[in-house]
Write a structure and sequence with these properties.
The complex is a heterodimer of chains A (125) and B (434).
Chain A: E1 4-10, E2 19-25, E3 28-33, H1 38-49, E4 52-53, E5 56-62, E6 68-73, E7 77-78, H2 82-90, E8 93-95, E9 103-105, E10 115-117
Parallel strand pairs in A: 5-8
Antiparallel strand pairs in A: 1-2, 2-3, 4-7, 5-6, 6-10, 9-10
Chain B: E1 2-11, H1 15-26, E2 32-35, E3 51-53, E4 62-63, H2 64-76, E5 81-83, E6 87-92, E7 96-101, E8 105-116, E9 120-122, H3 125-128, E10 138-140, H4 141-151, E11 158-162, H5 166-177, E12 181-187, H6 196-203, E13 210-212, E14 214-220, E15 227-232, E16 245-248, E17 251-254, E18 258-260, H7 263-268, E19 292-294, H8 305-323, E20 334-338, E21 342-346, E22 349-350, E23 359-366, E24 373-379, E25 382-389, E26 398-403, H9 404-407, E27 413-419, H10 422-426
Parallel strand pairs in B: 1-2, 1-8, 2-5, 8-19, 10-17, 11-12, 11-17, 12-13, 20-27
Antiparallel strand pairs in B: 3-4, 6-7, 7-8, 9-18, 14-15, 15-16, 20-22, 21-23, 23-26, 24-25, 24-27
Classes of the chains: A alpha+beta (125), B alpha/beta (434).
């Protein structure tokens, strides 16, 4: 007998926030309703099998005007590994100057996800 | 005291101020100045390190600092002057701006046009009249955001969030990421004031409960907050007896709304809209004082920065035209009203149209959540235009372009949002044309 499960999914791709349903049959997506763009459909399909999230946090920075540098994952992180990534980033410290887009951690935890600087931090003096 | 003169001066160097200055320069204002009280440009975006900005404006998902950076780079590529660490004390009719800074002291700038772009501030505990003692540990969510994301302090470890505005939701996730336990979010209204995507990715992802229809009835603690008492409220927002319960915490974050920071406008005598708390503007974003324009959250609180940039560009262009003597005083002025189902509309009045203008864009906030609805435009009491809305949420702005030929010569203009009849709800779009 085929296992058929209907998931109610709320898209987080953009602020419009489409809601829809994804029907999964035997582990693969069989049917989808309610998502109004390709990105949303891709998100919904992934959300029912392997949910991922973009991760933003801060790392320490020395020699800049500010103590913290915001960083963002270049690609989404598997949801169950978010806290592992945060733990890794907590141990990271960089020195100013930092340029927006600079890779701060590459291939975090072997997940193939890089984290880059979200802003410039010039060095003081 | 030193004196300077400029064509266009924006007060504020956040997203609105930068976009207005750039548009003013592009539209032909020769000398443009941005006055910013912080140590850098970017405004509140610099502390909004989460992503989700710029999908409309840049067609990609940026962090707050990333979005700010795009504009900072654009400003740097021009000859627009930027004065940092500069606080404006007064901007008087006639365009006389008095400011003060640690390096330049007291300075007077004469501006042909002024753009208000001061943004907004958070409502505080006083604004929601929460009873109880006055311990440490109660912060607005935005203040906590700055502490956590820019200054490196964690304001507490066991957190309760009051109000479900976006900043509160974002901070629920942020505090969780930094190792704090976020116990719950309490919202007095029967619906959330945040974007749906933030409820999903900031609360549901981490199992943080959202209590709708709950009000804080006491804050406990002498030196440091030790907990709060919460009760359910009825549909009149009155506390229901016997529903009270306590939640222990060492930190309370308030996300209970934003108010335009309009002291300068008020002091100058600009006519204000009592609902938005911002200036009453026409489609050029000109206030009641000729040569004074307003854009961004100082005009009305926006949901997306992308709309702020767009609106500020209108204000900046108009400011340049005024400085160049091209923005003629309007022959007549017509009021635009937010009717049934709507709380606010911007612009609140219309001046004479520019020649060749095809449509006017209006921004609305709904009064309450609704399902499939119709946005209606009534001209002189007759229905002139309608557009289907899939869903209506007070947390999200409604944006609509109304063709100038539909507005025509009407003296009274009113917008309404009404439930869509079922056969209309099934159709995608009944709008005629843009």
């Amino acid at each position: 007998m085929m296992a058929r499960v209907v998931h109610a999914i709320q898209c987080i791709g953009c602020p419009i926030g489409c809601g829809g349903e994804v029907t999964v049959e035997d582990g693969s997506v069989a049917e989808m309703t309610g998502f109004t763009c390709n990105k949303g459909q891709a998100y919904a399909a992934e959300e029912v099998v392997a949910p991922k999230r973009m991760v933003t946090t801060t790392v320490r920075v020395s020699g800049g005007g500010l103590p913290l540098l915001p960083v963002v994952s270049v690609t989404p992180v598997p949801k169950e590994r978010i806290f592992h990534c945060l733990q890794l980033l907590r141990s990271v410290s960089v020195a100013a100057p930092v340029t927006e887009g600079e890779i701060i951690v590459s291939d975090a935890l072997g997940l193939g996800v890089d984290f880059r600087a979200a802003r410039d931090i010039p060095s003081i003096q | 005291m030193r004196e300077f003169s400029y064509d266009v001066v924006t007060i504020g160097g956040g997203p609105a101020g930068m976009a207005a200055a750039l548009a003013a320069r592009e539209a032909g204002a020769e000398r443009v100045l941005i006055l910013e009280r912080d140590r850098e440009l970017g405004g509140i975006l610099q502390q909004c390190i989460h992503n989700g900005f710029g999908l409309r404006r840049f067609e990609e998902e940026l962090t707050g600092p990333g979005y700010a950076h795009r504009y900072v780079d654009m400003v740097k590529a021009t000859d627009i002057d930027v004065w940092l660490d500069t606080t404006v004390l007064a901007a008087e009719p006639g365009g006389i701006i008095t400011s003060v800074s640690p390096h330049a002291g007291l300075t007077v700038v004469r501006a042909k046009s002024v753009v208000y772009a001061m943004g907004c501030r958070e409502r505080t505990r006083g604004a929601i009249r929460t009873p109880g003692s006055r311990p440490a540990g109660v912060f607005t969510a935005g203040a906590a955001q700055r502490m956590v994301n820019m200054e490196g302090y964690l304001p507490g470890k066991e957190v309760v969030i009051v109000g479900s505005g976006d900043i509160g939701l974002i901070m629920a996730r942020r505090m969780t990421f930094e190792g704090a336990k976020v116990k719950a979010v309490f919202e007095i209204m029967p619906y959330s004031n945040g974007l749906t995507r933030n409820i999903v990715q900031c609360l549901e992802d981490f199992g943080i409960p959202l209590y709708l229809g709950h009000s804080v009835t006491a804050i406990h603690g002498k030196d440091r907050v030790t907990g709060i008492t919460v009760s359910q409220v009825n549909d009149k927002l009155e506390v229901i007896d016997g529903t009270a319960f306590d939640v222990a915490c060492d930190c309370v974050l308030l996300s209970v709304g934003l108010i335009p920071e309009n002291e300068l406008g008020r002091a100058a005598g600009v006519a204000l809209d009592p609902i938005t708390s911002g200036a009453r503007v026409d489609q050029f974003r000109q206030t009641s004082i000729p040569g004074f324009f307003a854009a961004g959250n100082v005009l009305h609180v926006h949901d997306l920065v992308d709309w702020v940039s767009e609106e500020a560009a209108i204000a900046g262009r108009s400011a340049a035209r005024h400085a160049c003597g091209e923005l003629a005083p309007s022959g007549r002025e017509r009021s635009v009203m937010a009717g049934e189902g709507l709380r606010t509309v911007v612009p609140q009045r219309l001046s004479d149209f520019e020649p060749g203008k095809m449509s006017v864009r209006f921004y609305f906030r709904a009064a309450k959540p609704m399902g499939a609805s119709l946005l209606q435009f009534w001209a002189d009491g007759a229905l002139a235009f309608e557009r289907k809305l899939r869903v209506v949420k007070p947390s999200e702005m409604i944006v609509a372009d109304i063709p100038v030929r539909k507005i025509g010569d009407a003296a009274t203009l009113e917008f309404r949002v009404v439930p869509a009849p079922e056969q209309v709800a099934a159709e995608e779009e009944i709008e005629e044309e843009a």
